[in-house]
Design goal:
The structure holds two protein chains of two kinds.
Chain A lengths: L1 H9 L1 H22 L7 H20 L13 H5 L2 H11 L5 H6 L1 H25 L5 H12 L3 H9 L3 H25 L8 H11 L2 H11 L4 H8 L2 H20 L3
Helix pairs in contact in A: 2-3, 3-10, 3-12, 7-8, 7-11, 7-14, 8-9, 8-10, 8-14, 9-10, 9-14, 10-12, 11-12, 11-13, 12-13
Chain B lengths: L1 H25 L8 H12 L12 H11 L1 H10 L3 H5 L3 H27 L1
Helix pairs in contact in B: 1-2, 1-3
The chains are: A mainly alpha, B mainly alpha.
């Protein structure tokens, strides 16, 4: 067994290909025979991935889902930022510049609107739960933006590590929910064309959520959503500890 | 040769991500600003050079196309390495903040999309 684990570790990426292949196979089977084609195979595959990650996290106590099993460490590479970004950029192959330009202005505006909206919602929730310190309120709001904006904002405002982990948890809830819920609500919110995908990417912002959600809805929309969401975390980190904190401090007397 | 496509894709991704990194640093941030977006624009430009458009069925194009087709499996791997346990056990306040932010953004998608359509 030890020998097998170290062998799998040396060939991590290959193990990951097999693992994902099996998950997709099971998902496609479930899509065809259980969901009768009503739920897309990739949506089921992503949900299965999240479920397995939950399981693994509960069992190993680690942060990296199934990648915390030494046997499956390669999932951390295949599902890591490098391959994710590489594949997202690849989806832009075949995108027409016209489509990007058509929704350019609104797509660009959706990013600051999305950032401010998430901060506002997160801050209101924090207030509702009795948080009174403006720096802590801002950090929770930042977590509602993405799980990167949360800790970056919290660190620069000097809040406690409990609040920072709360903000990370809020961002993780957002990412997971976006992946799962997007295919379910896509038709109702008109998410079926490049322009609305750009708006959606800018409003949601969480790259993992947006790219997972669009993959499960319609892979052709991925590059448009990714194009706007890629600016979201940066803008959130820029505005969070500065402008948004000042506004919240002015509105909430400490 | 497909490797030309893979190399082109990798080079676009690297240049874009590094530009996003520098942009973030220039703004004094710990975050990458728009790296993936810059990389995508670069790839779109380089595969649409006047007079030598690169299609998915050319040998070079197939190197890019392959990675674009591997996108969903990579996202499944990404889902499987998320810290879902922390998300689920983060408590009511974290769940409410995350969930309401998602609902609010979903609600605004049709509003802004309509606006985009009118442009």
């Amino acid at each position: 067994m030890e020998r097998l684990v170290s062998f799998a570790g040396d060939n991590g990426l290959l193990v990951a290909f097999v693992f994902v292949g099996v998950v997709m196979l099971v998902a496609n089977w479930l899509s065809r025979h259980v969901a009768r084609g009503k739920v897309h195979g990739s949506a089921i595959a992503i949900a299965l991935g999240l479920l397995l990650a939950f399981w693994a996290g509960a069992e190993t106590g680690g942060k990296n889902g199934v990648a915390d099993y030494p046997l499956l460490a390669g999932i951390g590479v295949l599902g890591g930022n490098m391959f994710r970004d590489f594949a997202i950029v690849a989806t832009a192959f075949g995108v027409r510049l016209e489509d990007l330009r058509k929704a350019g202005l609104v797509g660009a505006l959706s990013v600051p609107i999305g950032v401010i909206l998430s901060f506002a919602v997160g801050a209101l929730v924090a207030l509702g739960f009795g948080v009174t310190d403006p720096a802590e309120i801002t950090t929770i709001g930042a977590g509602a933006a993405t799980y990167i904006v949360g800790p970056v904002t919290g660190a620069s405002l000097g809040v406690s590590s409990e609040i920072i982990s709360l903000s990370i948890a809020a961002g993780l809830v957002k990412a997971v929910l976006v992946m799962v819920a997007t295919p379910l609500v896509a038709r109702r919110i008109g998410l079926d064309n490049p322009a609305s995908a750009m708006v959606y990417g800018g409003l949601m912002g969480t790259t993992s959520g947006v790219t997972g959600g669009l993959a499960a809805t319609d892979p052709r929309l991925v590059p448009y959503g990714a194009m706007t969401s890629t600016f979201y975390t940066g803008l959130g980190c820029l505005l969070g500890p500065s402008l948004i904190y000042l506004v919240i401090r002015a509105l909430v007397p400490a | 040769m497909p490797i030309f496509g893979v190399a082109l894709l990798a080079a676009s991704t690297l240049v874009g991500l590094f530009a996003g990194d520098l942009l973030g640093a220039a703004l004094g941030l710990e975050a990458n600003v728009g790296g993936v977006g810059i990389a995508m624009l670069l790839l779109i430009m380089l595969t649409n050079l006047p007079g030598r458009r690169l299609g998915p069925d050319t040998p070079t194009g197939s190197g890019v196309q392959f990675w674009s087709l591997l996108y969903i499996p990579i996202i499944v791997a990404m889902a499987a390495k998320q810290n879902v346990f922390a998300a689920v056990s983060g408590g009511v306040m974290a769940a409410a903040a995350g969930a309401l932010a998602v609902l609010a953004a979903f609600a605004l998608v049709p509003v802004l999309s309509r606006w985009a359509g009118r442009q």
